[in-house]
Amino acid sequence: MGLRRLLLRYFPPGIILEYLEGDESKTRSIDLLNLRPDTDVTALVEEIRKGEPLITASCTEHVIYLVQRLQQKLGEKQNHKFSLFKVLRTHILPLTNVAFNKSGSRFITGSYDRTCKLWDTASGEELHTLEGHKNVVFAIAFNNPYGDKIATGSFDKTCKLWSTETGKCYHTFRGHTAEIVCLSFNLQSTLVATGSTDSTAKLWDVEKGEEVATLRGHSAEIIALAFSTTGDKIITGSIDHTVAIWDVGTGRIIHTLIGHRGEISSAQFNWDCSLIASGSMDKTCMLWNAVTGTHIATLTGHRGEVLDVCFDYIGQRIATASADGSARIYNAETKKCIAKLEGHEGEISRVCFNAKGNFILTASSDKTARLWDSDTGHCLQILRGHTDEIFSCAFNYKGDKIITGSKDNSCRIWH
């Protein structure tokens, strides 16, 4: 066993150890959930070393440096006002999704026009148009943190894997019998998972371009999925009202989470994969123990369907977005609602935290995106200009750029 290199994970508060075991490359994550601006980093790393034999004396200084960098980011004050930088109108039909790469230097847009486009964030220049799908490109993702590959899932029942640098297609994954509506890379970038309206999810080998497993068990369409950070588990959410936890190695269901009385809209792990949050058309968000599959709490209060849920990156808070035009923030430990985000005049389809967890971004059918203080629930800024509903939005990691994608065929860059 040899330690090959250390990586600082860009979204959760932690570091990733990448090492060789025989000829196989493996990764292990170390959470730094308790890191604060005033933490003694040297003492913290020494404590980590005691329980992690991969961190030897020779690489301790590098680990300290990485943790200090993360600490500096936590300590940075941010009171950023966003202004419109560029409107990108080259899609000829509405956008479906937007996503940043690790650093936020590039982003991708999917569209009903059957293409995915790759953009340079700093200039707004189009770098590549990924063409080849025969129907709507609905689900898109970078293989973050690496960012050298892009996956696109389409209503044409296929998923394609592309080179970020050249825009060439590496593989076309065929096997689903209906539309692909969600996808995700594992953090190790060895697998892509696709979820389909054919009621199955499939796992695909990134290098070989082959199907690894078909996950069968849901009785209706799968519309949400997410890998655990270690990559050994995956969750799927279905309109059959359930969330399933699967073993990636065997392709078998570990637990079925039963309790919702409506279609699942969204499902997510928290960073250390101890919890799962699920949003549903039954107007609730449910919290589950990811290890035992048991129900922990039902987060109530919305008057309309819960359309999106997300954890902040340290898993302390959960944000929900609803068709009732509001978003809510709940404390993951107390299960109490700590803030109501009210002001949108239409349903909110997307909600996300910035990396530091102090801001929340929402996208709405009222043609605006809003920036909120996650502690107080106060609206800090309204991003106006789109002429139709906003389907998708995202922060870059640093939190100083935002992209919004709309039914008006355009994407906007804000910084």
TrEMBL record:
<feature type="repeat" description="WD">
    <location>
        <begin position="215"/>
        <end position="256"/>
    </location>
</feature>
<dbReference type="GO" id="GO:0007368">
    <property type="term" value="P:determination of left/right symmetry"/>
</dbReference>
<keyword id="KW-0677">Repeat</keyword>
<dbReference type="InterPro" id="IPR015943">
    <property type="entry name" value="WD40/YVTN_repeat-like_dom_sf"/>
</dbReference>
<feature type="repeat" description="WD">
    <location>
        <begin position="299"/>
        <end position="340"/>
    </location>
</feature>
<dbReference type="InterPro" id="IPR020472">
    <property type="entry name" value="WD40_PAC1"/>
</dbReference>
<feature type="repeat" description="WD">
    <location>
        <begin position="173"/>
        <end position="214"/>
    </location>
</feature>
<feature type="repeat" description="WD">
    <location>
        <begin position="130"/>
        <end position="172"/>
    </location>
</feature>
<comment type="similarity">
    <text>Belongs to the WD repeat WDR69 family.</text>
</comment>
<feature type="repeat" description="WD">
    <location>
        <begin position="383"/>
        <end position="415"/>
    </location>
</feature>
<keyword id="KW-0853">WD repeat</keyword>
<feature type="repeat" description="WD">
    <location>
        <begin position="257"/>
        <end position="298"/>
    </location>
</feature>
<comment type="function">
    <text>Required for axonemal dynein assembly and ciliary motility in ciliated organs, including Kupffer's vesicle, during embryogenesis. Facilitates the onset of robust cilia motility during development.</text>
</comment>
<protein>
    <recommendedName>
        <fullName>Dynein assembly factor with WD repeat domains 1</fullName>
    </recommendedName>
</protein>
<dbReference type="GO" id="GO:0007507">
    <property type="term" value="P:heart development"/>
</dbReference>
<dbReference type="Pfam" id="PF00400">
    <property type="entry name" value="WD40"/>
</dbReference>
<keyword id="KW-0969">Cilium</keyword>
<feature type="repeat" description="WD">
    <location>
        <begin position="88"/>
        <end position="129"/>
    </location>
</feature>
<keyword id="KW-0966">Cell projection</keyword>
<dbReference type="InterPro" id="IPR036322">
    <property type="entry name" value="WD40_repeat_dom_sf"/>
</dbReference>
<dbReference type="InterPro" id="IPR019775">
    <property type="entry name" value="WD40_repeat_CS"/>
</dbReference>
<keyword id="KW-0963">Cytoplasm</keyword>
<dbReference type="GO" id="GO:0070286">
    <property type="term" value="P:axonemal dynein complex assembly"/>
</dbReference>
<dbReference type="InterPro" id="IPR001680">
    <property type="entry name" value="WD40_rpt"/>
</dbReference>
<keyword id="KW-0206">Cytoskeleton</keyword>
<feature type="repeat" description="WD">
    <location>
        <begin position="341"/>
        <end position="382"/>
    </location>
</feature>
<keyword id="KW-0282">Flagellum</keyword>
